[in-house]
Amino acid sequence: MNIFRLAGDMTHLASVLVLLLKIHTIKSCAGISLKTQELYALVFATRYLDLFTDYISLYNTLMKLIFLVSSFSIVWYIRHHKIVRRSYDKDQDTFRHYFLVLPCFLLALVINEKFTVKEIMWTFSLYLEAVAILPQLVLLQRTRNIDNLTGQYVFLLGAYRSLYILNWIYRYFTEPHYVHWITWISGLVQTLLYADFFYYYFQSWKNNVKLELPA
Amino acid sequence: VNSNSAKDEL
């Protein structure tokens, strides 16, 4: 494992922990899109089916379990926790799941490395992860005012994606036959979706003002 | 060709 991959995993982990910590300590999920969180739970549930079939490493297994448990916990908190759920702004978070899930699934049926259930689910999870942030970005645009933790959450997710791209470049030059078009293209699309957000994030950071997105 | 090398990623 290279340094980019490890740093990518750690920022990914940090993003989830920041979110859980925010929800757990201030008992609020204001500004967080339940739709995005449900899509991430679906992403992990479909991608990590190999937990039952392949063993890669202890690190790999533990991280997968952490992502599964944390993503489902976040969804549970927002939907069912008696205090947290009151802060969920249902009327603003209107993005439809199937708008993203259905095209991703159809695409996975057509473009995949192997036509098996496990492989199609894995490919589906890659496509879905690429676009799962969209409901969150729409919500950010709508509410405009973003609290620090929500901003940091999206920033950490973007950092994770960027580091994964560096990881792929590194692996391409250091490992023989490391060519994965499906992973790369969906990963690139995913990272590009953050570009706009990043622009405003850095502007507000540079000018030392609270992050606000244009309407 | 090890076409599964990306599977060790998260």
Unreliable residue stretches of chain B: none
Sum up the overall morphology of chain A in one term: globular
Count of DSSP helices of chain A? Answer: 9
Helix content of chain A: over 70%
- Rg value of chain A: 17 Å
Overview of the molecule:
The complex is a heterodimer of chains A (215) and B (10). Chain A contains nine helices and no strands. Chain A has 215 residues and is mainly α. Chain A: GO terms for molecular function: ER retention sequence binding.
Q: What descriptive keywords fit this protein?
A:
heterodimer, A: 215 residues, mainly alpha, 9 helices, 0% strand, B: 10 residues, little secondary structure, rod-shaped
Write a short abstract of this structure:
The complex is a heterodimer of chains A (215) and B (10). Chain A has 215 residues and is an all-alpha fold.
Question: What is this structure's SSE topology?
Answer:
The complex is a heterodimer of chains A (215) and B (10).
Chain A lengths: L2 H24 L7 H14 L10 H23 L16 H14 L6 H15 L2 H10 L4 H27 L6 H13 L1 H12 L9
Helix pairs in contact in A: 1-3, 1-7, 2-3, 2-5, 4-5, 5-8, 7-8, 7-9
Chain B lengths: L10
